[in-house]
Design a protein that fits this description.
Order of helices and strands: HHHHHHHHHHHHHH
Structural class: mainly alpha
Number of domains: 1
Largest sheet: none
Helix content: over 70%
Strand content: under 5%
């Protein structure tokens, strides 16, 4: 297996996005709101590393169980296609999980909360259960993946904010964790929609694996209608949140409405006429871009508050 194939196997672009989001909170969001942190730069780097190891392992095990479906859905991107490659991929899966859990155990002991390692262990187990069982179930599989995406944001709060709480800074620390929670909820909503879009995209291969995803149970058109209806939830919530929290920061408000929500309205309009596989591939990528643009609002908020002062 070449380096390029390995990077594709672990979904390096998705891992880079996770690292970026965690770094944005640590190095831009927290300083802007004077949030105390427990980890120095080295240990925060280890937190990112541990997170990426577990996420990479999850991507590998998912690919291993998706070989048959991917031969139909993504015939040009199947990386694990013979017994030797599968065996090597399994070794990578085990090694990455061991490294991720070991590093997280060290960090948990370092911050004085040894039990926090359970977060990484539970994530690794959930990713395994998802790939082998939950992925075949309608809605619940989509929810599990979306929750794990949200957890990659909240993990920063567990390891960097909570251990730094004192009697003096308690209010400020909880405010910081609240901000993480807000973004985690938004990430959950958008990723949940994206997971159903991907299920429609991959319906042909999933049928061959006897899966029971939502599009297989109710069809492409009805699933599309479900996504469209559910899209009104983040549309209204993010718009309401933006007006409620950024009305005194007009640049941030404009960013949220024009750069984030306008593309989302475009997504909803394109969704109504989506029919071909390529349409859903485009919609999936568009949602991923919208999620990234939403996370980059952290930079816009920081700049606006800094100049407002």
């Amino acid at each position: 297996m070449s380096v390029g194939n390995f990077l594709q196997l672990i979904r390096w672009k998705n891992l880079l996005m996770i690292a970026l989001i965690q770094s944005l909170f640590r190095y831009i969001y927290f300083p802007t709101f004077s949030i105390a942190t427990a980890l120095d730069n080295l240990h925060f780097g280890l937190l990112i590393f541990a997170t990426l190891c577990i996420a990479a392992a999850g991507n590998i095990i998912n690919d291993i169980y998706d070989i048959k479906a991917d031969k139909i859905n993504k015939p040009t991107k199947v990386l694990v296609i013979h017994s030797g490659a599968t065996k090597l991929a399994n070794h990578f899966y085990i090694i990455l999980n061991l490294i991720g859990i070991s590093v997280s155990l060290y960090l948990s002991i370092h911050i004085g909360y040894a039990s926090f390692v359970a977060t990484f262990i539970a994530t690794a187990l959930l990713l395994k259960v998802y790939s082998t069982f939950l992925k075949k179930k309608p809605i619940i599989g989509n929810m599990v993946v979306s929750l794990l995406i949200s957890l990659s944001i909240l993990i920063v709060g567990f390891f960097d904010i909570i251990p730094a709480i004192t009697e003096e800074n308690g209010v400020q620390q909880y405010f910081g964790f609240g901000g993480l929670l807000d973004y985690a909820v938004f990430a959950f909503m958008f990723n949940f929609l994206r997971e159903i879009v991907k299920d429609i995209e991959d319906i042909d291969g999933d049928i061959n694996l006897n899966m029971n995803t939502l599009p297989i149970l109710i069809g492409r058109k009805r699933s599309r209608n479900v996504i469209f209806t559910l899209s009104f939830i983040p549309l209204f919530l993010v718009t309401f949140y933006s007006f409620s929290n950024f009305s005194k920061l007009p640049f941030v408000l404009a960013y949220m409405l024009i750069v984030v929500m306008l593309p989302f309205l475009y997504f909803m309009s394109k969704l109504l006429y989506a029919e071909k596989k390529q349409d859903y591939i485009f919609l999936s990528r568009l949602l991923k871009l919208i999620m990234l643009l939403g996370m980059l609002s952290i930079i816009i908020i920081s700049i606006s508050i800094t100049y407002a002062e």
